[in-house]
Amino acid sequence: MDKLNVICVDDQREVLSAVLQDLEPLTAWLNIEDCESADEVLALMDELDAEGEHIALVISDHVMPGKTGVELLTEVNRDRRFMLTKKILLTGQATHSDTINAINVAGINQYFEKPWQAEILIDSIKRLVTEYIFDAGLDYTEWHSELDQQVVLERLR
């Protein structure tokens, strides 16, 4: 069974480690990659795309050196190769205008403030990855037991 890729980015290793720990239950069916900068994410996405891998979701912090999370997710949103990739902004320092830009320009699917609740984050990831699978036209049956069953039922109607 192929695994779908989820990329997490935060410039603070301790925050990134906390996210990865919370996402551990998903590693049975998702490949969780971690990066510490926007440029590292973009390079990884190029590499995974070149290998024919699916990038289902990018989870990004907002305040990072170099490119912000909104800038990163906007770049991902504008890249035709990743038009189906879902996006989550996970931050504790976004302003009101940052949040508006994230929704309107970066096309984020979900916004979480730090500290997040692990169960809610996991439920959101399951929902978004399930949507990605159907949007990309992938055979959902190999992951069926892991998916958001409500989304599956809605998409099969």
Descriptive report:
The protein has six helices and five strands, in the order βαβαβαβαβαα. The two termini are 26 Å apart. The protein has 157 residues and is an alpha/beta fold. The relative contact order is 0.16. It has helices spanning 13-23, 38-50, 69-78, 96-104, 118-135, 149-156; strands at residues 4-9, 30-35, 55-60, 86-91, 110-113. The mean pLDDT is 93. It has a single domain, classed as Rossmann fold. Helix 3 packs parallel to helix 4 (96-104) and helix 5 (118-135) packs parallel to helix 6 (149-156). Helix content is 44%, strand content 18%. It has a five-stranded parallel β-sheet with strand order 2-1-3-4-5, sandwiched between helices.
The oligomeric state of the chains shown is: single chain
Question: Which parts are unreliable, with pLDDT below 50 for 5 consecutive residues or more?
Answer: none
Going by CATH, the architecture would be: 3-Layer(aba) Sandwich
Overall average pLDDT: 93
Sheet-strand content, in percent, reads 15-25%
CATH superfamily: Response regulator
| Helix run count | 6
